[in-house]
Structures are given as structure tokens and as C-alpha cells.
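Attaching the record inline, Q. Sequence:
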Amino acid sequence: MSDWADQVRSDPKALIGAPASAVRDVLEEVAEAFGRRPWPVLAEIPSDVPLQVIGDSHGDWPSVSAAMAFARRATPPQRFVGLGDYIHRATRAEPDPAALPGGSVWNAAYLLAWAAYDPDHVILLRGNHEASRQLPVPGPTLLRELRRIYPREEALRLWDRFMDLFERLPLAGRTANGVFLVHGGLPPPDRYDPAQWKATDLALLEGLLWSDPDVEYEDRAIGFAYGPREVREFLNSIGCRVIIRGHGPIHSGRALWNGSVLTIHTSDLFLRLGDGGILLAEVPNRSRVESAREITLRAWDGSTWRPRTITLLPSGEGPMGPPSSVGFPSSPTVAGGP
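Structure, as predicted:
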């Protein structure tokens, strides 16, 4: 890796005040690494060491770098998985646009540099914001952030390079001990077989990156609602028992349907939603994980990742309960949503 990439991995702020060529150098090294070792559509993740999972960070690089340090201080390093949405939205310096920082730029460069350097231990999944050229998102800010830092043409070139790299990331992950990791939710029912997944399949992207549980679903003109029946059927079909997701912050820090779906976020933007907190979920390195009850949840207080009890929402509709009333439509929606 280049000196700039080494500096960025050590400190996400290393690019602040640096020329555009520094960011370009980092991204070119990432592109070379991804070319040597392309990411699969579904990342198969061993369970030989604990796995630290972050949710949506949206430019909150202080929290993300603290989570990375927590994962890597172990010997050997624990694995680190991001559930997507590393970019867009103002964070730690609102309101937008008056005080919008370069958080997306620093956060994305930091994470991509790590994924290129140690792909065995740092796995970045795509969120809906990393797929915004395929399925548009509302109010994107990465390009605006770049344009505030660099000349217009240079900003456009850097934005295009960032998006090229994001579109090479896996759409989801599966651990050897039975945890499915994804930004939003489930694929459509006719796409449950990962062997058939393609990164250009818009229906697949919409399901995995934009969907929400039916108990928090809102009509955003994109994405599908899923309930306990769909969760049970999909998890059984891929040999898993638990989903860890981000995307919708309403249930952040909470587990639905007898502990089968856990939602987390790792951004100060969502401190007031769900159970609050900047969260990190640890998947243990045991042979099998049957419920979110076996996952360790931690919240960042600015200096320490403090353990926190996962709220298991009471429900008579666990994974083996009655079917949900809201499911997938027969064809994808390709429009953006709020």
C-alpha cells in the first residue's frame, strides 16, 4: 500500500487538507487490491474468531475507527464487518449544508483502505447508499462533500471512483456459524438461492439493500416488507438462524421475532432512535448461533465500548409463528425513495 493508504488506515483524518491526488492514490491502491482479489456477491465468513459488526455509519468516522481498533487489538485480530451506508448524510456537524463536514470522504477512504489491506479480516458489505447509481437514494451528500473540498472536475472524478469501488463490494455475508449479515433484508422469494445472485440484479439489490421488517415498514416507493414467515423460510433455505441488519433505525439495538432479526446502527445520527447508542454487535466464534441472545451488543460512550443488553421485543409471532400479512411484490421497483 502507498504511504497515503498507510496514513489513512492509521487515522481517517490524514486526508484532511491533503490534495485530491492523495485520495486518488488511496483509491487506486484499493482498486488494484480488489482486482487481485475480487469480492463475491455473498461473502462467506469463517467463525474461527469473533466477528465485530457495525451498522450504518454515514460518515461517523470517529465511531467507525473506534470499532476497528476494538476488533484489531485482539491477537489474532477479530473480523470486522460493515453493513453498508458508510457515506451520505451530515453527522457530527449539522445542520446541512452550512456545516456539512467531509465525514463521508474520510470514512469511506478509511474503510476501503482497510478492506484492501486485510480482506481476510475486514469485510465491507454494500448498503443502499453504496448502490445509489443503480437504485437512487434521496439527498446524497458524498459528491457535495467532495466538491466543497476539491475543484469541481476533480471532485466528479473522485466520486466516480468511489462509486466504482463500492459497486464491487458484496451484497451480503454469511458466517459459518449461521448468521446472515445484510444492510436491509431479504431477497425476493424467487431469489433465495445465493448461487444465482448477480450484483446487477435490481430486484435482488432492492430486496437486500432497501427492505425492512413489516413492523417498521414505510412506503418509500422502493424496498419490500418482510415478516417472521419470510425470515424463517429464507434463513432455513441458506442454513442460518439470525439476521443482523442496519438500514431502518427504529429498532436499533432491538431484536425481533424471538431474536431472529437484530438491527444496529453505528452513527451519532441515530442516538435518539430505537434503544439509542452507537452500537457494535459481536458474533461469537462458537459452532452455531441460534438467536440474537447469543450476540454481545456494545455501545460507544466516547472512550469505551460498554456491554448493553439486547432488547428482545415481545411478540407472539416468532420465526415459527403465523405468517406475516405483508410480503414481496412480484416485480421490483426501481425508483428512489425518501
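Residues 95-99, 316-338 have pLDDT under 50 and may be disordered. The chain has one domain: 3-312.

More tomorrow.
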